[in-house]
Design goal:
This protein has 395 residues and is of the alpha/beta class. The chain has 13 helices and 12 strands. It is globular and about 75 Å long. Bound molecules: pyridoxal-5'-phosphate. The site of pyridoxal-5'-phosphate has 15 residues, from helix 4.
Amino acid sequence: MKKQTQAIHTAFQHPDTYGSLAMPVYHTAAYEFGNAAEMADAFCGRSDSPDYSRVTNPTVTYFERKVRELTGAAHVTALSSGMAAISNTLMALSATGKNIVSSRHLFGNTFSLITQTLARFGVGAHLCDLTDPEAVRQAVDSDTCCIFLEIITNPQLEVADITALARIARELGIPLVADTTAIPFTEFNAHSLGVDIEVVSSTKYLSGGATSIGGLVIDYGTTEGFAERMGKEQLFNLGAYMTPHVAYMQNLGLETLHARYRVQAANTLSLAQALKSVPQICSVNYVGLPDNPFYALAQKQFGPTAGAMMTIDLPDAEACYRFINRLRLIRRATNLFDNKSLAIHPASTIFGPFTAEQRREMDVKDTTIRLSVGLEDPDDLLHDILQAVGATPLS
Ligand SMILES: *Cc1c(COP(=O)(O)O)cnc(C)c1O
């Protein structure tokens, strides 16, 4: 079956008693057993009967299984947020005295997780330019426990050569961990590029219309001891498992992901192309534009589409505020890959708590507006942007 068919028709683990076409939502904390032996088997991992919904639930398991079959992964764990997926993964891989090699170009909370939260437990952060394999070689040492990257950084829109990073990780015998939130896992195969563990904020493309917060850890089974630590230790002790209602909504989102994503990516490309000739806009940054420095690498790694996140630069911060305030259709909101188009000025919001110096180091400019392009007609989006920058509508 092709992925789009599989995303819709993956069978339930057990046929539903009433023949429900949708995966039933098992809204229960606990499960009852027929006898003591069955109970013992479930608790000791000798059977897959669920016992308690902090660690297993049939609705969540169905969602996980669908993602596992779509990606070809060995194990998939659905968690309560993208940050739960990232923190659980990095906690499972690290320990006091170890270090994580990554970049300053990271989702704000991931940056803070690595440089503040994990630092308190004695985990080091070796931050370097992940687009420069030589810099990565300099950053790794015998205590490095993983290399962590985001496939398209936000808001810099930078793309690292995943195969080159995988080669370095393999030489050291450590896993390459990729946050693949920016392009759905149905569009490209991260494992074939050398990624060992994929983490995803399923809040974004998957949830479909921003219905819910969720995260996925997609483990290709190449990292020794990882599945055991995630599934048998952290799931129990950290308690961040996805809830059945969220799994129901995100499973529904996954069924329409392909159709939504293709329209959003096409809308983004057409908008980016149109905005390039608007004099009030200083620059348009989208990895899907052929003159973008990462275009060829992105096409090679992720295929013909380049996601639905783009940025525009305006002359100064005041122009950015004016733009945000004038928007009539595009919503003033954070979040990415909603059905609705969203705009945000990252420097004063997501990165507002950082100092100007830190923002400079992270390449977060005062002049940048980030756009997440939705499912609206692209002409309406173009019209809104043109009026908001004070340009004459094209027709
Ligand atoms: C949103 C996002 C996260 C965090 O996900 P939550 O579901 O909000 O916890 C992590 N990484 C990237 C790239 C994101 O866009």
